[in-house]
Amino acid sequence: MTDRSTARISPTAYYTGHVWCKNGLSDAALDTREGALLFALLRPAMRVGRALTGGVALEEMLLQRHLMIDHLLSLAIESGRVGQVLEIAAGMSGRGVRFSRRYGPGRLVYVEGDLEGMAARKRSRLASTGLSSGHHHVVALDALADDGPLALAQATRGLFDHGKGLAIVTEGLLSYFDTPTTEGLWRRLARFAAPFSDDLYLSDLHLGRTMNLAAVTLFRGMLQLFTRGRTHVHFTSASEVAPALAKHGFARATVHHPRDWAAELSLPGQGGLETVQVLEASTR
Ligand SMILES: C[S@@+](CC[C@H](N)C(=O)[O-])C[C@H]1O[C@@H](n2cnc3c(N)ncnc32)[C@H](O)[C@@H]1O
What we know:
Layout: H1 2-6, H2 12-22, H3 33-53, H4 58-78, E1 84-88, H5 95-107, E2 109-114, H6 116-128, E3 136-140, H7 152-155, E4 166-170, H8 179-193, E5 199-205, H9 208-211, H10 214-227, H11 241-247, E6 252-256, H12 258-265, E7 277-282
Parallel strand pairs: 1-2, 1-4, 2-3, 4-5
Antiparallel strand pairs: 5-7, 6-7
The structure holds S-adenosylmethionine (SAM).
């Protein structure tokens, strides 16, 4: 079962969950002892990373991707293009809580999905702290399942309306999947999104050129040790992305760079090494 092989990734969600809380992007209910401990353990390496990259350690990279995805998602909701969000591999991210609060039940249905253990932990944290709401759901799903109760369609049955636009978000997931697995995921997402009146796919992405630099190799090495598996880079340059997505059902794809939004979004690590990008795609 895929769950067994990709559940090794789950502890990284505690680290990122701590980063979101520390930076005012999440609720304290979603912070964990594991996340705070990992953050403290990695702090010395972060200092070295910042010195080597002009101020872009793991924390800045995470904030850049998170704030860019937030911004692109807000634009799509506010323009009326989407009224529903499926955030896959949401972990302990606070985006579901923030967006559900910001847009309210009349405007947005927000569904977060993750592997069973993580989804159960998130659901119980939200329930015990009064953060649950009728238009914000947490479901168990497996992004790699083609059928069965954890496949996208079954896991979200009854929660979405095909008459409204849907945004799908994957954040912090693709790097853990090799290219064939990522392509399979994109085909599954495109099939799932196609019946909706409109769709948008947002994800972080890492392009190979910067990923080969010493400082980034150091980060990747740490992440690989920590997740007991390889991390993967799927493209060397931005120009390869749209043709690859087109092969798997996304007719349109754009790559956003932190420098495009640095000033508007006050992104941390401005002027430092670019280590992350955000993909925006659609099946139409
Ligand atoms: C790096 S964390 C990212 C969490 C969150 N998106 C964030 O940015 O804070 C990766 C997440 O992927 C989840 N995950 C791993 N394999 C998965 C799969 N096959 N289907 C759904 N989620 C998965 C893990 O449980 C974990 O929560």
